[in-house]
Structures are given as C-alpha cells and as structure tokens.
Amino acid sequence: MLRERHQIFLSLFVASDAVIATAAAWAAWWIRFRLFEGFRPYGELIDSTMVPFWSTAPIFLFVAAILGMYKPRRDEHFVREFKAILRTVVVGSISLVTVLTLLRNELTAGVVLNNFQFVVLGGVVLVGWTVNHYMLRRILKWARSRGFNIRPVAIIGTGPTGQQICRTLRSNSWTGIQPSFFISHQSQDPPEQCEGLPVLGTTDEIDQVLKHESPSGVFIALPNAMASQIEDLMVTLGNYPVDVRVVPDLTFRFIMNMKTNDLDGMPILSIRESPLNGWGGILKRLFDICISAVMLLILAVPILLAAIIVRCTSPGPIFFRQRRHTANGREFSILKFRTMSELTADEQKAEAGTKQWQRGDVARVTGFGRFLRRTSLDELPQLINVLRGEMSLVGPRPLAAGEVADARDNWQGFMLRQNVRSGITGWAQVHGLRGEASNRVRMLYDLHYIRNWSVWFDFWILLLTVKRIFSDPSAE
After folding, report:
1. Residue 261: beta bridge partners?
2. How many CB atoms lie under 10 A from the CB of residue 117?
3. Which H or E element spans position 102?
4. Within this chain, do residues 126 and 239 fall inside the same structural domain, yes or no?
5. Cβ–Cβ contacts within 10 Å for residue 32, how many?
6. Residue-wise pLDDT tens digits, 251-266
7. Are residues 133 and 48 in the same domain?
8. 288-343: per-residue pLDDT in tens?
9. Does residue 295 sit in the same domain as residue 242?
10. What pTM was computed for the model?
11. CATH number of the structural domain spanning residue 218
12. Pair 171, 33 in one domain
C-alpha cells in the first residue's frame, strides 16, 4: 500500500518534471535568441541552434534518480527539498554539458553550443521544478486536509510494532493512509486506547469489528510469539475486501536497507543488505577509481618529495605496512608513509602483543613524521590501496584482526560495517573520531553512513575531509 502510493506520487512528479525540463530547453533558446537577441559578447560566432530538447529531460531525470531527489520527504520542510532540487539541477547541467561536448560529433555535428543558453536552461529548470514540487505538495496537502483520498486502516496488534506503525503512518501523511483504530492481540484485559486511537476488540472478535467498521486496509503487527496465528487471521480477513500488510516484529536498530523480493512466487524479506550491491557498488567503484587516479596524478610531486624526505630523515623503509580488514573480512596490507623510527625484530614482536599498533609509541615519531600525521599526508599512499580495490576513498576505517574480533564479541551489529570496503576517510573521521576514539561510537557513525550511502554523500565527506585536514586536533 505504501509502495503503491509512493509509486503513484513518484510518477506524477517525474512526468511533470520531464515536461518542465523539455519545455525549459525551448524556453532557454527563446530567452537567449529572442529576448536577448542583441546580446552577442562573442560576435557572430554564436550559433542560434537550441540545446537538443530531447537530451535535457533524460539526463536531468537520471541525475535526479542517482542523487535521490525523489525519495519520500515525509513532513520535511520544503527547504530541504529545494536543496535537493538545486543540487540535482547543478549536477544535471554539468552532466548535460559534458555529454553534449563529449558526443558533439555524433549528437550535435556542426552545432556550436552556446554557454549562456546552458546557464539560462539551468535557471529555468530550477525555477520550474521548485514551483512544480511546491505546488504539487500544497495541492496534496490541501486534498488531505479536506478528507480527499484518505484511506483509513486498522492495526492488529497493540504492542511496540503496532505502535511504531501508527507513528510512522502519521509522520508520513503524504501517503493518505490514516490509522483509524487498533485491534488488540491480547485476549484478556485489552487496553481501551493505543496511541490515542480506540481499541475496538481483540483478534478473537475481528469478525464482529470488521462487520461494523470498513477500513480499506489492515496492518498485522503481532509479536513473534503469536506468529503462528497470522495464517488464521489471513483466512478471516479473506472474507473482507481489505488490503492486508504484515509487519514483522523485528529489532529495527540493526536492520540495514530492508527489501522485499519475490523468487518464483516465494516471498523473501531481506533485512540486511549492502547498499553497494548492483549498480550502487559499480558507481562507487568508478567514483573511487576516477578520483584516486586523478589525485595520484595531481599529487605525484608532493608524494615523491615526501618519500624522499622520509628516506633521508630516518633509516628504514619509506612505507609502513600493516594487515587490516576490509569488506567481508578480507585482509589486506594497508600503506602509509612511515612516521616513526624503525623497530628491531624483538621490539616489533613485543608491540604486536599490545594495542600500540593503533598510533604507536609517540616518543618514536620523527620530526617529519609528526608533520605528516598532523596534515594526514601520511595516508596518501592509501590511494594505491583504493586503485587496487582493497579500500575505498570513503568508508569505515580499517581495523586490525584483533580489534575486529573484540568488537564483534562485545558490540551487537558491529559487523554490519564490514559490508562495505574500508575507507581512507569516513563519516566518523570528519566528526573528529580518530586515533583513540571509542570504536563503539565510531560504529554508530559508520552504520549511519552505510544506511544513507550515496555518491553525493561520498563527495560531501571528501569535502569535509579537506576542510578538517589542517584543523583536526586528533591527527597527531
């Protein structure tokens, strides 16, 4: 029911946005070559051909889907949606220019595309989409407030899961699905009210309740101990024209990207699935390869200078290598510039049995090594780990085998962070959780990142990382 409602609203928004984007291409041409006909800063070199109208909507809508512009906004303030629209228009305009430039021989042969026209196009799309989304949401809100298209539903089960369903439906009023009453799962001493709604009977009295009430749908939210009764309820509900949804009694804290699937008629509920399966993983990997390769080219000279200084200022290898864990528990050798004086074989064995591997003995940090740590330049060689596919630019920090084992035994849900590749930086790191910060606290930030992953989120974390490099007090 929720999915069907969202798909209807999604189709409405997508169709209207596609029309606006296509019309914007025509409007941009008219504004540029009719309204500003005399404005020719480049002389007669300007071509009067419009931006290909057929390319605008597909590219903009593809970017909108990638950046999550059409995700349910619940009752969020419209300012948040406007930010999503603005982000999509900026990235979409850049993508449109890029595609038409790279494929100009195939798509726009003999046409000189006008830069000012692209600027006008982006502005028209931004204004059009903003007005469209605002007006559609106002119309839907007005319709709901007048009682139009409201679908009352009953919730079977007054326990924590049933109460959560009620609160969720209320906070997602855009669906038009309105909880109307409860039916208690308790046969003895059922409550009179739950979440401010009346409790009209128990599961034993469901026939009598539905004969007097006419909900359009029912949500079954029985405790796990009563799961065997769901089949009997389905038989009873089969006598009434209502939509039926079953909500499992699960602990939601460690559910990640829950999805429902159908395999040859067999329903499958996936409660823990990496967001990087399928296209998500391909996009993230392409992002990692492109950015890390460009960074290695740009920073080739500083990396070479740092390697020379490390070798000249203290005896020992240039790189510090250590075995760490990444996605699916795979081990790899992480690379860093060596920032400490070299240990003897006996000293290395003694340190391996302690937790000194985290930051090592501070007294052994060299002068240049202290500078590398403070500026996080000691981690630049990890770009090689990224190109190898052992790490990602953004993700949970890689841990040693000992720490993974300790955390797995002590903190429920910790291994969820192992569903993605470890990263050079991450959501925890940009919040200052580095060095000796609690792994438990970092885990909460890592799980937030995994649940909310997107390419844009990765890009935002990289920007925050650059900002913190020279100001993070934990980078010592």
Report:
1. 268
2. 22
3. helix 78-102
4. no
5. 22
6. 555 566 666 666 666 7
7. yes
8. 999 999 999 998 998 999 999 988 888 888 888 888 888 777 888 899 998 888 76
9. no
10. 0.56
11. 3.40.50.720
12. no
